[in-house]
Write a structure and sequence with these properties.
Elements: H1 9-20, H2 25-32, H3 36-46, E1 47-51, E2 57-61, H4 63-74, H5 87-99, H6 104-112, H7 115-120, H8 127-135, E3 169-170, H9 176-179, E4 186-193, E5 202-208, E6 214-219, H10 224-238, H11 242-245, E7 248-251, H12 260-264, E8 275-278, H13 288-300, H14 312-324, E9 326-327, E10 333-334, H15 335-345
Parallel strand pairs: 3-8, 4-7, 7-8
Antiparallel strand pairs: 1-2, 4-5, 5-6, 9-10
Length: 354
């Protein structure tokens, strides 16, 4: 019995030469050391109508046609796609990632931990598999552009020299428990700016280091007085509890945070309401929680967005989304859940953050 083997491109050239010369399928099979049925199947792959010089036609075999057909068939090999059997799951993933701004890992965790959802779908896939399906373009309404973070090439940058000294206390004097995230009430503050030349205002973003909870408010401009006004309003709401919730605030050296005295000093009581610390120049990593929170905001307000067009309710809806978003960093709990627990422990309502 002839041993089975796959034909190569060279084998197909041999078949074409001998078939054109009038050899039978049996003779060609014996020459190549394969079964006659192998040659029969191969001829079907590359058969075409050949036009003779006298305008008559005849059946002919093309090794190129046969090779192209074989290469195309090889692309469909491999393990069958699990998600191909569950259109409902594919649609759900598209909706949560492209529309609701969930990451692939977050939406899969949502499915795993919701008994109603997990029983609704036929198959389950891993985070790695989902990323691979998106990379291959297997979804109709979901591409890499819908993913939260684009992978960009990193360049080495020369750090500029700080042009002016910090307005207040350096981060080097900040208590160690802030760095360790062991105590509630240590916040980072930053601004998110809109389209250059279009947006006069910006978003003021405060992120609590332990819980990663977010407080976001729209500012009419990027002046220091507007930042102080927000802190004054928060103190009017929280009163004596302000110092419990905002034990410290870490900021960068932007002009909007230059009014150190008025940011720190209480407008209601004597003394200071919080402690303000300034990062080193051009060290955004010293406000890492802030930077990550800003990326979440950019899912809803990408760079180039005219922030003046956002209403205060739009901004609060972004804040609520962030505080309700399940995060792997927090064991798939939301920042809002952790914030409520911390606020309850100190006896302060958490409504303004949720």
């Amino acid at each position: 019995m002839t041993k089975y083997r796959r034909l190569t491109k060279y084998d197909r050239l041999v078949i074409e030469a001998y078939y054109t010369a009038g050899y039978s399928q049996t003779d060609i099979a014996d020459l190549l050391g394969v079964h006659r049925s192998t040659i029969c199947r191969e001829l079907r792959k590359g058969m075409y109508e050949h036009l003779n010089t006298n305008y008559t036609t005849r059946k002919a075999y093309s090794s190129n046609l046969a090779q192209d057909y074989t290469d195309f068939q090889a692309t469909s090999k491999g393990k069958e796609l699990k998600i191909a059997d569950d259109y409902d799951l594919a649609s759900f993933l598209e909706e949560k990632i492209a529309h609701d701004k969930y990451s692939p890992d977050a939406v899969l965790h949502l499915i795993r931990n919701d008994s109603e959802l997990s029983s609704r779908f036929k198959v389950s896939i891993s985070t790695t598999t989902l990323y691979r399906y998106i990379d291959k373009g297997l979804f109709l309404n979901l591409t890499n552009k819908d993913l939260p973070h684009a992978h960009k090439k990193r360049y080495r940058r020369v750090r500029p020299v700080q042009k002016r000294r910090s307005a207040g206390t350096s981060i080097e004097r900040r208590p160690d428990d802030v760095l360790s995230r062991s105590c509630f009430g240590a916040w980072e503050m930053d601004t998110v700016k809109g389209a250059r030349g279009k947006s006069k205002g910006c978003l003021l973003v405060l992120t609590e280091r332990k819980t990663r909870a977010e407080f976001t408010v729209k500012l009419p401009d990027q002046k220091a007085a507007s930042v102080v006004a927000v802190l004054d309003e928060l103190e009017n709401i929280l009163r004596e509890d302000f110092s419990k919730v905002f034990r410290s605030i870490t900021v960068d050296n932007g002009v909007e945070f230059s009014d150190f005295e008025n940011m720190q000093r209480s407008k209601i009581f004597s003394g200071n309401r919080t402690s303000i610390y300034y990062c080193h120049a051009y060290c955004s990593s010293e406000r890492g929680s802030n930077e990550n929170a800003n990326r979440l905001i950019r899912r809803h307000a990408p760079k180039g967005t005219d922030l003046d067009r956002l209403s205060h309710e739009d901004v609060k809806e972004i804040q609520r989304w962030i505080n309700r978003y399940p995060r792997k960093l927090l064991g798939y709990r939301s920042a809002g859940q952790l914030l409520q627990e911390e606020m309850m422990a100190i006896g302060v309502p958490a409504e303004i953050f949720l």
